[in-house]
Amino acid sequence: MPPPRTRGTALRHRLAELRGPDVPAKALDARALAALAANPGCRRRAILDGAGVNKAALASALGSPSAFGQSQFAFMRGNAFEARVKADGGADLLRLAHEKLDPHAEPPARARVPELSAIGPEGRAARTALALREAVEAGGWTLLDHPMLALDVAGSPAFLEPDAVVVHPDGGWTVVEIKSFPMLDGSADPAKVGAAARQAAVYVLALEEVAARMDPAPAVRHQVLLVCPKDFSNLPTASAVDVRKQRAVTRRQLARLTRVEDIADALPEGTCFSPELPAEQLTAAVESVPATYAPECLSACELAFHCRERSRARGAVTSLGRSVRAELGDLTTVVDVLAAARGAAGDPDDPAVAALRRAARLRAEALGRRHPESPGEERTPTQQHPETPHQRAEPPEAARCR
Question: Which listed site, 70, 192, 199, 377, has its alpha carbon 20 to 30 Å from 388?
Fold first, then answer.
């Protein structure tokens, strides 16, 4: 008799059914896991990423092809800058790590750069773990160039490749993120820094799993080294970025991903996200999973255009941004917001409703109109501000447009 199916194998079988027959799983990388942490309430992305669905192919099959991705020029520029940073055995990178993170340690004059090549991602991950153990035992500075780390995601290993990992003389480990966006006068674009921090937090979690298998466990530093071009040059500069908050959010989101089976069990029988299905059937399958769209999804998810179209069709206020959604409380659609502002709906004691009605009254006063809740006749702008001889008479069509 075949061996009994465990919970892990049952989940993998269920996720394979969601992908479709003979459709290979798309491996999760750190960028995708960081995007999950940026939008933890989106069940649609959780189930699609957990099942390994190719969202770019899915978006094209839905008729909303994605423009998400890095341009070829930016890709080449990033590779050239990374090569510049790691030249001469990573001398500049180690100098920045010593300066920004560990100035009291000995200078990295004789750093080790071990060879990490192996067969397959499993072999590279094992070779990386061995190199980390050897670096801790040897002491001194060690630079691991593109190590391979494994992180358990929804019961399956996700193989991640950070730009570099630095081992300090005290045995601590630091993740290095190399980005091609500039750092002007010591600061960079907050949105890009936040995205880099979320991505680095994924690597920190993977390093912690490697450290947990060692005795004693080395310290994985929660300050990562962000290396960027200085001003408008190609010279590298760096800043220490604390990723404790991003790490905590990512850990919670990964814990939710491990319960992706609960989302799958709530789907209709026979749900499948294979791009080979007819458009109507595929659309129904995607819409059976609730999504939480926000404008930030346009830079992080391949399905953003499809979800934006559906969100606008429903009049959801989330399409205006998370900050707007948070301010409106129980008002979830634009229709509800307008009705509350006019006084046709909503609880007057609700702070959001009260603020909307006050804003509507102020707008009506500014335009010289009567708010539905205000007594009196509507006054036109001409009645409120009589026209002076120096003002040109306004044609009736313009007044109606205004």
Answer: 377
